[in-house]
Amino acid sequence: MGAENRKRTRRRGGGAEKPAVARQTRYTQLRAPFKPQGIFSDDAIANMHETALRILEELGIKVLLPEARRIYRDAGAIVDEETEFVRIGRDIVEAALKTAPPSFRLRTKNPDREQQVELGTLAFAPGAGCPHATDRERGRRPGSLRDFEETIKLQQSFDAMHVLGPSAEPQDVPVQLRHYAMARTQFALSDKPPFIYARGKAQVADAFEMTRLALDLDDDAFDAGVWIFTIINTNSPRQIDVPMAQGIIDFARANQLSIITPFCLAGAMAPITVAGALTLQHAEALAGIVLAQMTRAGSPVIYGGFCSNVAMKSGAPAFGTPEHVQATLGTGQLARFLGLPWRGAAGTAANTSDAQAANETLMSFWANVLAGATLTVHSAGWLEGGLTFGYEKFINDMEALNAMAELCTPPPEDIAAIGFDAVAEVEPGGHFFAAQHTMERYQTAFHEPLVADLSNFGTWSEAGGLTSTERATGIWKQVLQDFQPPPNSAEAVSRIEQFIADRTAAGGAEIEG
After folding, report:
1. Rg from Cα positions in the chain
2. Does the predicted model carry a pTM greater than 0.90?
3. What pLDDT is stored for residue 512 in this prediction?
4. Which of 148, 169, 241, 364 is the most exposed place for a label (fewest CB within 10 A)?
């Protein structure tokens, strides 16, 4: 990305210009730079797991899809068809956890964009599922296909954004045809792992076929790799609806990735205590993992958690709160207890890209990094608790993601870096600007900010006194202006055009359930 590797020409003490050197960065595959942090004792985590097993065994979970209830029953679960309740014994859960893979590779057409998925790897996904988009020039509006295309370009343009997400929902495309437009856009404009919604068997089957065609895979090659992913949200408390259950089944049968994520807001859809909300989240995630593994043992899953609290005076969701941070740290502990890769989430309830938005996003983002999240969703662009995707918010969030990606590269620690000779060269009370140690390194020594203005007040004022949000507008506009599709994307799209045309002529695929 040009903005990450900008070439700069600096002057040396007012003298002749020294040729600029590009500072090279590679943020495409990251490993967590910190040891995972927790907040609960080991005994508490074991008790949460035990209580989650009790919930599944004694209370059960309501499963609305008959086929899913049959799969549970065939595995030995107790199913009440009249109430649609499924009670899952701990032996079934233990069997599922033995086959759920602790490590797998998320593939794509560009090997440099592939992601190893396991505890210890670190990847970021954008704000997702937003029905609106906003920027400073065009304002807040219902999401359109244009917005989706632009936000995919933004996602593609930064290495520290590792997988794609349904940033701004293209509501100007009929829902029975929308998955064609969204798949086409992802393959046309990106070479990162694509996302699809689990919105019924027909739409998922279409998405699988478009993936095979676009990536030029035969059935065996598609089945042998993990090429596409979806997010499965349970209906907390204790319910899996028809499209979500169908999605788990369809993705498992095709050996594609389900990120099984309860959305538990303490005090609303979950107990008001963080420990209680996490226990419910754990039970629901286990129920989804069981369904996937009983459908196809060894199918890829990610243990998901998106647990925060509500504002008890209004009932509105809150993000970046101390409780959100505690729940994220606890989710990481539970995932490590199982030995599975896991998904967390950043987020903000702020209505615009302001200090509240930055504070809440950074608090929740850091919680995910410190907790060792394998994938952090909603890490850039998310506003209004997910109702709006903000262009300036995305750019300012990328500042934080780039900085975190930089932290994943250990600083040099050789004798030269430790710098005895530099200290010896500079007299007491002097400075290191002109030291040989500095002159050899100054063009590439430090991370280059994307948005931050490091000039003094006078220089900043003379340049217009722009805020970071205002500067972000120019950045996203420049990124879109300079955007070039990845190589071979035109060929990928050409392979799916006829399929889309035929399916569109047939009326598309309605959402099921």
Report:
1. 24
2. yes
3. 76
4. 241
